[in-house]
Amino acid sequence: MKNLRKSLGLFAAAFALCMVFALGAKVNAADVEMQIGNADAGKGQVQTMAIPDFAISYISSDKSQASFSIAYQYGTWTRIGVFDENDRLVAYDDALSYATVTGLQKNKVYYYRAQTVSGEYGTPTSQWSDAKAFSTIDSKKIKFKGVKNQKACTIKVPKVNGVKNYTLYMSTKYDKGFKKVKNIKPGKKIKLTKFKKKSFKIGKRYYIRLQVNTKKGVTCGNYYQGSVYFYRTLKF
């Protein structure tokens, strides 16, 4: 019985000692976390938060408004900032899943970035992401035209500040199978007579897609598409 009481006493002492160490560990951890938080706040550092995926999803016909889709994360507010070619912030919107900015101008290249914020109109909780780009080029500025009585077409692209060149892709299908043809310098006009080294065929529709490449090495996320249909002219 004496040995049992002695064993129980040792067990209780050991258990109490473990509790002391456990509580001490928790307190120390909390103190460390608090010190780190205060140090970061004192230095004005921004916490690192995971930025959701985001992309441009809509540009209005008058090019004054753009909307952006954001991968929804519960409780996470994301700020989409739109910058001009001089990296000046021109518009922004805070949203959970869909952001919209207004006041844009035609025939411009814009860059957009994302950062997480504490809430709508809140303070940043991350740095800005790397830049993506889009353009507000008026489609009327891009000239697709078939050459009369020839199996050929011409394409003329506009000069726009910030645009390095346009990459031309072609396909015989509307939404797939596009192959790179060539790069076109701003303000230039080219003539096309072949696709995949074969002359254009009568009665065939060819789809043309233009990708805008910026001088900063960022490809615009939107593109411009048209089509040319070659037909035989009947003479009587």
Automatic annotation (TrEMBL):
Residues 1-29 form the signal peptide. Keywords: Signal. The keyword Signal applies. This is Fibronectin type III domain-containing protein. It comes from Candidatus Anaerobutyricum stercoris.
